[in-house]
Amino acid sequence: MFKHIIARTPASSLVDGLTSSHLGKPDFARALEQHNAYIRALQTCDVDITLLPPDERFPDSVFVEDPVLCTSRCAIITRPGAESRRGETAIIEQTIQRFYPGKVERIEAPGTVEAGDIMMVGEHFYIGESARTNAEGARQMIALLEKHGFTGSVVRLEKVLHLKTGLAYLEHGNLLAAGEFISKPEFQHLNIVEIPEEEAYAANCIWVNERVIMPAGYPRTRQKIADLGYRVIEVDTSEYRKIDGGVSCMSLRF
Ligand code: CIR
């Protein structure tokens, strides 16, 4: 079970967030409304929520998942691969120190890691080696996880931004997978729920205490998740999709 959520209100500079999509710029007013609805959805999940203030200097700082990995035993401050995002670690560190006194680790140069590339399955952490997380960052991350009694392994990704862009672990052995991840040998021991290509964006969901929060507008995925017995909560993330963000990116859950 998760007890804590950390999120950050988007800054209006969000409209200049990094993107690989051709969906146009986000509408800030809508993005703000969608963020409010996302927080309201989390409020129904038996967690306490820390909402950090916006920081205009960092357009992508609403995506708090990337600068820190929060586990049940330690927090690991990452070193984002995107240079414009590197300063996001400093603006969240004080909050993390409060939740993890004496248990904060960090990734050092030349390693880079964005925690959107990390998926927890029980005591094991899959680390995506991506355009943002390099081999040295993954190596350091695994060493730090092992120091705290966890295990880790590397998954190479070719097409998507982050590991969790195309994967979501919903506990109980259930793994949502899209595109390049459906056939990866390292996940075949799990119950792979295939997300159809036209709904690939919906592979990015979050499990929060037996609820699954997912993006609105993906009916086939919704049905598949509901068929597994979860309570499904849909939230509209259209403005975040325009800058490659989804429901997992907008919170830390621990
Ligand atoms: C970026 O490119 O870094 C942001 N525009 C999107 C980050 C999404 N984060 C995530 O998947 N964990």
Automatic annotation (TrEMBL):
Keyword list, A-Z: Hydrolase
GO BP terms, alphabetized: arginine metabolic process; citrulline metabolic process; positive regulation of nitric oxide biosynthetic process
Superkingdom as given in the UniProt entry: Bacteria
Molecular function terms from GO: amino acid binding; dimethylargininase activity
Catalytic residues (positions): 162 (proton donor), 249 (nucleophile)
Pfam families per UniProt: DDAH_eukar
Key word Hydrolase present: yes
Residue stretches spanning the membrane: none
Keyword Glycoprotein in record: no
Record-listed substrate binding positions: 18, 60, 65-66, 85, 132, 243
PANTHER family the UniProt entry points to: DIMETHYLARGININASE (PTHR12737:SF9), DIMETHYLARGININE DIMETHYLAMINOHYDROLASE (PTHR12737)
Family to which this protein belongs: Belongs to the DDAH family.
Protein name: Dimethylargininase
Species annotation: Pseudomonas delhiensis
Lineage, uppermost ranks: Bacteria, Pseudomonadati, Pseudomonadota, Gammaproteobacteria, Pseudomonadales
